[in-house]
Amino acid sequence: MYQKKKEKLYICDLLENPAVPYPSYYVLSASMFKNEMLHSALISLHSFNFSYYETAKSYEDIFSMFHSGTFPVYKEKYIVGYFGNKMMYLESNGWKGMPSTEDIFKMENWLVC
User: Fold this and answer.
1) How many beta carbons lie within 10 A of that of residue 37, not counting itself?
2) In angstroms, how far is the first alpha carbon of the chain from the final one?
3) In which element (H, E) is residue 26 found?
4) Alpha helix (H) ranges present in 15-109?
5) What are the backbone angles phi and psi of residue 74, rounded to the nearest 5°?
6) Which helix (H) or strand (E) holds 73?
7) Mind listing the pLDDT tens digit of every residue in the chain (113 residues)?
8) Bridge partners, residue 26, by sequence
């Protein structure tokens, strides 16, 4: 089976002095590596500058971001995407399925723009 090539996006390539240096890189597909919306979400997360974000008021806020191709932030720690009808969060080694916990349903844990 054909494996798509993954690339490492280093945070130091996006920001000179990140406030949150860990993880130092993310393993992404070629299309995600070039995605400017993802870059801006990662810059916000790693600079800890959420001036363009606000706390989600409803689930509609979160899903409107998913459908527009932008990425909400969960607990000021994770970038969240919606792929193939699954919510996924970004870790250094790629996208992981988001576990369904009680915290996921609390609106104060979500930042949207």
Assistant:
1) 15
2) 39
3) strand 25-29
4) 30-33, 36-47, 59-68
5) -110, 125
6) strand 73-74
7) 566 789 999 999 999 999 999 999 999 999 999 999 999 999 999 999 999 999 999 999 999 999 999 999 999 999 999 998 999 999 999 999 999 999 999 999 999 99
8) 9
Answer whether 77's CB lies under 8 Å from 111's CB: no
| Tokens at 103, concatenated | 């915290």
Is residue 72 within 8 Å of 65, Cβ to Cβ? yes
**Could you tell me which residues come within 8 angstroms of residue 68 by beta carbon, excluding any fewer than 6 positions away?**
none
Output the pTM of the full model. 0.91
* 55 and 110 Cβ atoms separated by less than 8 Å: yes
Q: Which of 3, 8, 13, 2 is nearest to 28 (CA)?
A: 8
